[in-house]
Structure formats: C-alpha cells, structure tokens
Write a structure and sequence with these properties.
Layout: H1 8-14, H2 21-41, H3 73-78, E1 83-84, E2 87-88
Antiparallel strand pairs: 1-2
C-alpha cells in the first residue's frame, strides 16, 4: 500500500493552529497513519450489512408530538438571578 500524505500546513491553517517543524513531522506521520487505516477499512465487504433502523419490521417508537402547557413568564423570571422587563440580565462576556 502506498504511503498517503497530507498537507499539514493547510490542515493547521484550517484549525487555526501554528505548528513547529517537529510537530509538523509528528502530525504528518500520524495523519498518514490515520488515512492508511481509512483506506484499509474501505476493503471491508459491507454488502450484506443491514443498518440499524432499516431492518425488516422496524417501527418508529417516538411518542406523538402533542403540545403541552408551558411556563408563564412569571414562572420563568422567578428562576432568573437577575432580570429587567421580563428579560434575563447576564454578565457581559464580549468587549
């Protein structure tokens, strides 16, 4: 089987990470190994495999989607640590 390669710089750029030269080499080998394993999996015969949910006699066991009474605004606001005008007040996290 041929050795598969991947453009580590491109993948690192997609992931928004910077890699040192040593890390590029290590990750390159690891990615090649993973891609080789995926190629090996492609050799498995799955023609007779029946997927879960596609077997004969499968029945959807979900309950009916029936609307129910929800909470009132007062009940919801009662659980808020801080509120104003029926809105939650939360700490600012973005400058």
């Amino acid at each position: 089987m041929e050795k598969l390669s991947i453009d580590i710089d491109y993948v690192a750029d997609l992931a928004r990470i910077s890699l040192k030269a040593e890390e590029r080499k290590v990750f390159g080998e690891q990615f090649s190994s993973i891609l080789g394993y995926i190629e090996k999996l492609k050799e498995v015969n799955i023609e007779d495999v029946i997927l879960k949910g596609e077997e004969e006699g499968f029945k959807n066991n979900l309950r009916d989607d029936i609307p129910t009474k929800g909470l009132t605004v007062e009940e919801v606001i009662r659980n808020a640590p801080s509120h104003f005008n029926n809105l939650f007040i939360v700490p600012k996290i973005i400058e």
